[in-house]
């Protein structure tokens, strides 16, 4: 696990210069998941490098959340192998626990202990992680300050706004200084000020040598944040690699994304709606 007694919030295991031959943060091999007759994830292979800000992008229903749930030990795959920080996630019950000790998760539709205050939530989370009480209190104070929650630390979480809930959830996910941080739509429904605060914390975190993997369907955000991207559609990986390689000759990631997922043809289908926006004089 990361050093629990470190003075810095994001001092990850002595963050050495990146080693090109280092093990990836996440390796997925032949991953499948079916819900009834619907195949949500079609035997994907995925290699996510360590020490990067990684975007997992795709349209709604692409399989992003299902994939992240399996990678983080929240949903058992039908078949396939997943390694996170060098540990096999699903080889046995103990392996799931080992992986969860090394990762942080901010899932979509975050459920929190709403009858606790923000500070109480962090104190509870830190002690569940096995951190010493004094260290939990120190890190909680730092995180509450950096995420602009110090003034609301004694307010019940049930009374937090959407942006505040995302920030306290991020604080809880970062508290134990994980090797890899998984975020599912972390900026969804968040105001611009809170989004900028979250962005600054994540950039500082990856700058320490840690890895962030976040899913999104907002291409402009991914392009501005990420240096490595995986594109998913229909439960399959359509492209993965450094941002420049995935973009190719396209001017923007949005253009490359639309071409990869075949969205251009669907957009052109709107041409058949020749009645839309026409004369509205007489009605049948």
Order of helices and strands: EEEHEEHEHHHEHEHEEHHH
Give the terminus-to-terminus CA distance.
70 Å
What's the shape?
A: globular
Number of domains: 1
> Rg to the nearest angstrom?
21 Å
Number of helices: 10
Topology:
Elements: E1 26-35, E2 38-48, E3 53-57, H1 64-71, E4 79-84, E5 87-88, H2 93-102, E6 103-106, H3 118-128, H4 133-146, H5 162-174, E7 180-184, H6 192-207, E8 211-216, H7 219-225, E9 228-233, E10 236-242, H8 243-247, H9 253-261, H10 263-268
Parallel strand pairs: 3-8, 3-9, 6-7, 7-8
Antiparallel strand pairs: 1-2, 1-4, 4-5, 9-10
Helix pairs in contact: 3-4
Please provide a written account of the structure:
The protein is α/β, with parallel strands linked by helices and 284 residues long. The protein has one domain (26-256): 3-Layer(aba) Sandwich (Rossmann fold), CATH 3.40.50.300. It has ten helices and ten strands. Residues 1-7 and 12-18 have low confidence and may be disordered.
Q: Top keywords for this entry?
A:
284 residues, alpha/beta, Rossmann fold, four-stranded antiparallel β-sheet, 10 strands, globular, disordered N terminus
């Amino acid at each position: 696990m990361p050093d629990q007694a470190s003075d810095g919030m994001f001092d990850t295991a002595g963050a050495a210069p990146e080693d090109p031959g280092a093990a990836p943060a996440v390796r997925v091999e032949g991953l499948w998941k079916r819900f009834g007759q619907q195949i949500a994830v079609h035997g994907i292979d995925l290699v996510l490098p360590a020490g990067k800000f990684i975007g997992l992008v795709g349209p709604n229903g692409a399989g992003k959340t299902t994939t992240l749930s399996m990678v983080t030990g929240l949903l058992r795959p039908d078949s396939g192998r997943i390694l996170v920080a060098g540990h096999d996630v699903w080889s046995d019950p103990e392996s799931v626990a080992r992986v969860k000790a090394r990762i942080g998760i901010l899932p979509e539709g975050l459920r929190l202990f709403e009858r606790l205050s923000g500070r109480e939530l962090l104190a509870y989370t830190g002690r569940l992680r096995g951190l010493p009480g004094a260290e939990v209190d120190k890190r909680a104070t730092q995180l509450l300050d950096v995420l602009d929650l110090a003034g609301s630390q004694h307010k019940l979480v049930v009374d937090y706004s959407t942006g505040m809930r995302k920030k306290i959830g991020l604080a809880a996910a970062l508290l134990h200084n994980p090797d890899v941080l998984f975020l599912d739509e972390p900026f969804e429904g968040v105001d611009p000020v809170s989004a900028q605060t979250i962005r600054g914390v994540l950039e500082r975190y990856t700058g320490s040598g840690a890895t962030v993997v976040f899913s999104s369907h907002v291409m402009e955000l991914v392009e501005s944040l990420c240096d490595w991207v995986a594109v998913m559609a229909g439960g399959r990986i359509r492209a993965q690699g450094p941002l420049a390689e995935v973009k190719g000759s396209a001017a923007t990631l949005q253009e490359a994304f639309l071409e990869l997922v075949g969205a251009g043809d669907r957009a052109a289908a709107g041409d058949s709606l020749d009645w839309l926006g026409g004369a509205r004089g007489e009605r049948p």
